[in-house]
Structures are given as structure tokens and as C-alpha cells.
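Researcher: Let's continue the batch. This sequence belongs to DNA mismatch endonuclease (Patch repair protein), and it's 155 residues. Same format as the previous ones, please.
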Amino acid sequence: MVNYEDKEIIKVPRFNEVNGFYTTKSRSILMSKIKSKNTRPEILFRKALWASGIRFRLHNKALPGNPDIVINKYKIIVFIDGEFWHGYEWDKKRAKIKSNREFWIAKIERNMQRDEANNLKLKLMGYTVIRFWEKQIKKDVLGCVKVVSEKMEGV
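Model: Same format as before. Here are the C-alpha cells for DNA mismatch endonuclease (Patch repair protein):
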């Protein structure tokens, strides 16, 4: 840490170019190609929802967390979370992070905190929040659609 005028500033570790690690610039280019909207699992899930007759809206920026899918009629929100970014089996994965640990651990844990805060805000607004992991969608998309339709019946 560096002390500037009695304010502690955490220096973010940078990537290096040794033994196959990426430089900051090349890592930045690589990371910019990772999509946050319209991912394959998200499209797969949307097609299955539509085929089952469930109508929805996408990426409502007015709602906390910018949900992937919003079913307004039933006040249902669906998020499709990537395993790495949202901390799937975080206790196991955290120990396995080797490169730039300080940065990635803080980043993912902050994402997890933000997810919980957004869930709470949405619930207080009267929404039912459903979160699926990308791997759930890939493995059993129809089962995930069934979860949504059961929630719709319960409303």
C-alpha cells in the first residue's frame, strides 16, 4: 500500500509477460471479449422460454442488477450467472487462483456482495428473483424453464 496524504490506496497488481502470463494491455484485450449480455447460455435459455410460451423483456437497466430476463406480468427476474465471475463453489475456487490473487479475489467477492444486495432490493420491490448458473442452463435448460413456469404458477 502507498500512503498519499494519509489516505491508503491499494495498488492493483499488474499482469506480467513471464512464462505465459499476459501483459496488462493483452489481458485487457482478452477480457474485453468476454460478453456480459447475449451469452450462449442466455440465448439458449431465452429460446427455450419463448418456445414454451413465456414472454419476457431483456436487460432492464431501470432495475437493480440489470437483470438478464424480466417477466413483468409475474414480477419474476432471472439472472444467468457465469461461474467464475459470480463465485460458483467459491471456497474451492478461491484457493486455486494463482495469478493476480489479490485483484481477482476482491473482484469476485465484490460481485457476490453486489448480487446479494441486488437480490434484496428486487425482493423489496416485490420481485421473485431466480438465479441460474451457466452450467445449469447448458446441462438442463428445460429443467430451468420448468423452475420459472412453477414460479409463475405460484404467483
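Researcher: Any comment?
Model: Strands lie at 2-4, 7-9, 57-58, 69-71, 76-81, 128-133.
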